Each structure stands twice: as C-alpha cells, then as structure tokens.
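User: Please fill in residues for this 184-position structure.
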C-alpha cells in the first residue's frame, strides 16, 4: 500500500468500493475503476435502431413535409454539422486521454471545446443527425424519431453516466453540471 493511497486531493470525491448512491441512482466506484458507468447498450446502437425503425415506418406509411428542394439541403447541412460535432468531441476526449465509450471508465471530466456548451454534445449530435436526415429525406418519421432517441439515451446512458461522474468526481462534476446544460 503506497503512502498516498486513500488520501483525497482537495475538491475530489473519495474513491469508494461498491455502489454509491447519487441523485440519479447507483454508480459503481472502485479504487481501480474498471467498470465505468455501466452503460450496457451503446448509444450509437440506440440511435441507429430508432433510425432504422423510423425508416421502416416511412417505407410502410410514407409522409412528407412538402418542403422545397433547397430545404432538403438545409437538413443535410444540419446532419453534417452533427457529424462535425461528434468528430470534435472524440478529438477532445482523445486529447484528455479519457474514453469516449460510456461503458468504459472515465479518467477526467472534459469541459473544454464543445463540452463547454453541452455536457452531452455527442448525444445531442445523434438527435440533430436524425432531424437533419429527416428534413433531407422529407420524412416526419425520421424527424420525429429523434424524440425516442433522446428519451432512450437519457434513461439508458445519461442517467448512469451522471450518477457515475457525480460519485467519482464529486463537487467538481456538480459544479460542471451547474454551469453547463445537459443538451443545449
């Protein structure tokens, strides 16, 4: 046992064994932190699943906004911006040497770049990708599917991540939550 083990730096939450209760449920917090927040279904898979169901609904029961062709390109632009935000987010995670995958442990709270404007820019981008894609493809189903994506990601990923980060980083994460919105 090293002389620094068990000591906590000012502003950091102690690292405990087992489950810790926070305002959003339970999070596994261990000395080695090998489990992360416990997200079991990758959020991109949730978005893709909703997108495929929306596309199937569009195929079976076609809809249309009746938009002008130039508006379709506006939707494509929204989708491209969403992809850019995902790329920038991943680059920011890599720069901070922490995992982008929500089922792996986090080594630090990322607050720079797009994370200064949204605590969940990647999840926000998933929704924008669906909105933009739905406008581009002129589909109520695809645009409306973003609501299901947002709800699924909130209950299956964000709640677990927030509980984990609050338990692991304590006041530092609470301050970040207070200063930056979850979505936008």
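Assistant: Residues filled in for all 184 positions:
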């Amino acid at each position: 046992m090293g002389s620094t083990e068990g000591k906590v730096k000012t502003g950091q939450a102690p690292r405990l064994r087992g489950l810790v209760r926070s305002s959003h449920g339970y999070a596994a917090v261990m000395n080695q932190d090998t489990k992360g927040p416990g997200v079991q279904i990758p959020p991109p898979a949730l978005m893709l699943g909703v997108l495929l169901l929306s596309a199937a609904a569009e195929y079976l029961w076609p809809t249309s906004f009746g938009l002008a062709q130039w508006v379709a390109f506006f939707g494509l632009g929204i989708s491209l911006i969403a992809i850019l935000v995902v790329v920038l987010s991943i680059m920011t995670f890599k720069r901070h040497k922490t995992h982008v995958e929500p089922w792996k442990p986090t080594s630090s709270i990322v607050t720079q770049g797009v994370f200064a404007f949204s605590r969940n820019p990647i999840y926000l981008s998933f929704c924008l990708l669906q909105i933009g894609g739905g406008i581009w493809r002129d589909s109520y189903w695809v645009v409306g599917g973003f609501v299901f994506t947002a709800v699924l990601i909130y209950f299956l990923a964000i709640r677990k991540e927030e509980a984990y980060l609050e338990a692991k980083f304590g006041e530092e994460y609470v301050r970040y939550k207070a200063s930056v919105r979850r979505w936008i």
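For context: The helical segments are 43-60, 69-95, 121-136, 140-169, 171-179.
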